[in-house]
Amino acid sequence: MKYVVVLxxxxxxxxxxxxENKTPLQYAKKSNIDYLAQHGEVGMVKTIPDGIxxxxxxxxxxVLGYSPLKYYTGRSPLEAVSMGIELSAQDVSFRCNLVNxxxxxxxxxxxMIDYSSDEISTEESRQLIEEVNRRFKNSSIxxxxxxxxxxxxxxxxxxxxxxxxxxxxxxxxxIKDYLPLGETGRILLNMMIKSSSFLKDHPVNxxxxxxxxxxxxxxxxWGEGKKPAISSFFDKYSxxxxxxxxxxxxxxxxxxxxxxxxxVEGATGxxxxxxxxxxQAALKELESGSDFVYVHVEAPDECGHxxxxxxxxKSIELIDEKIVGTLLKGxxxxxxxxxxxxxxxxxxxxxxxxxxEPVPFIIYQKSKEKSSGVQGYDEAQASxxxxxxxxxxxxxxxxxxx
Length: 402
Description:
With 402 residues, this protein is of the alpha/beta class.
């Protein structure tokens, strides 16, 4: 048996007036995914337990079969693992975004304009993070470059209790009420403030401004945590797994679970990603001996955060055509297979951030086609089936058939 999960990050949404009061999933043309819904099992699953922030970290842990209440320690350590950073049990890792803030003189008066600095290129951001590291590195603190706006700071033997806010949660808001607090928080805040004084004049940012792009004029620290002890996916389900994603967070979860992480050329984490390449890589992994492939697509989530209505619909349609359509053709060679399609959490366009509502899922098996009673895949039709899983980490047990 071969197993494939197609995870459209943040696909679920609320009705959008500009889309005839339909959700993006209802509005998008997605014949392949609708076919799976018509002939599979459709329901709703709660991926975010009560008391856990509604992030992709906890949600994807849940979808992969790991209870966030047991395994979730924070977002950044998972990303750090993907980046090849060695963490001891005492080290605290932080996500470091390169953000674009408004230009008020006092830092606390600034507004979060863009949490991704116009999705700054990896090469540009590397130069900026190297400058940040040169200014702030000491025996305890070090910065590491990642992809685009996503980077990492490690505090060796550092304190771990903070109240930090994801920058994508406060788009177009004044940052005053979301700054790090307390004695240790002050250390983080001082670095953020100082970074804004020297990053604005960096040659990379001067070049971006000259080209009409937003400068990455501050770092923003959040997502702190210590390295989690995730049990092996193979030991748990007796299947050899691979993960395909452009996002360090998802790669890190896979690596911590003992799965193989596959890089795809042109995979960006946005609507311009290599959709087809991800599907082709998944089929290649199955041909090469993997039993299970987790295909993660960040694009719908990014579009939700950026209030890009047309692009969110487009990303869903491309997932359907380029990924699910390609997978179904390639999987037909096998006597039997299962495919599951779902988001990890909603990212409503109207809110531009994650929410914790349950999300719709499909489980389809080639040898067990049936009439599900739904005409397509969306939030309303999935809710109407009456199938609901309150503990999201048990969905993988259902999918694998354990």
